Amino acid sequence: MWTRRAFTSLVCAGLACAGGGERARPLRLAVTTSVHDSGLLGVLVPAFTAATGRTVEVSAVGSKRAIELLALGQADVALTHSPVEEAQAQASGRVGARTPVMRNAYVLVGPPRYTGVVAGAADIRGALRAVAVSGRRFVSRGDDSGTHQRELQLWAAAGIPAESAFILPFTGGMAEALGLAAREHAFTLSDRATFLTRRGDLGLAILFQGGSDLDNVYAVLEPAPQTAADAEGARAFAEFLRSPAGRRLVGSYGVETVGEPLFTPVE
User: Fold this and answer.
1) 153 forms bridges with which residues in the sheet?
2) In this structure, is residue 226 part of a structural domain?
3) Euclidean distance between CA atoms 247 and 263, whole angstroms
4) N or C: which end of the chain has fewer CB within 10 A?
């Protein structure tokens, strides 16, 4: 069974397994919770294992923590969606190569009866200003994830203090944040893939979407030379996601379950 914080792919195939039938050490992947909570990771990891013979041990955390685990040598590779922090870590030499692999978008969600709150907003900044004056609550991830970092950037662009009373701080993954927004009858910012996968009986709807400010790019980060314990495995993971097989898996995910692709491979 897949758990959000950590799991291990148990499939081992091909000659990459250690001699005598023993498994090589698993590739330690630190990954943003949205890739896990959307279900995409449950497709990518078994395919990577089947293609390379490498098992994978996953820590599903916020993007900032994933970058930290990689920089500390506690992860071999990371899959994150926080471009500003990724660039800073790369410029400082804390991580190595950055390979963009896929994208989707952020969406503003909330109870359908709140549609009128953001109706007519020209962009996400206008939508957030409308939320701020509406008297409705907004669930904030508060966990230094890529989604949280984008949320903070958007509040700043909208001229709204991130410490405003209507913003409900919360530390947890995307799926948990959506659940809290449903219970609190509140707005929240979500990646589109996790929302469409998890919406079920939440009673939430997409109330605003579109615009470059909501673009959401995911990248594979490889370790810096001084912390690399499995540089070959990290490169193999990045190359798999950029391969025709990896791109097909990314681009087709969601079509059967929600009726549309949830991620788009980058060119």
Assistant:
1) none
2) yes
3) 10
4) N
Give the CA distances from residue 24 to residues 57, 61, 74, 183, 240, in Å, rounded to whole numbers and listed in that order.
12, 24, 17, 44, 19
Which domain range does residue 179 map to? 105-214
Q: Contact 43/2 with Cβ under 8 angstroms? A: no
Enumerate residues 6+ apart whose C-beta is below 8 A from 212.
none
Nearby residues of 42 by Cβ (< 8 Å), 6 or more positions away: 2
Same domain, 129 and 55: no
C-alpha 48/C-alpha 38 separation (Å) is 18
| 3-state class (DSSP) for residue 66 | helix
Tell whether 32 and 96 lie within a shared domain: yes
Q: pLDDT digit string (tens) for 216-262?
A: 999 999 999 999 999 999 999 999 999 999 999 999 999 999 999 99
Q: What is the mean pLDDT of the chain?
A: 90
Domain for residue 1, yes or no?
no
Distance CA 263, CA 159 (A): 30
pTM of the model: 0.87
Within a domain: residue 18? yes
Domain check: are 120 and 65 in the same one? no
**Which CATH number characterizes residue 198's domain?**
3.40.190.10
Q: 43: which 2 tokens?
A: 């497709």
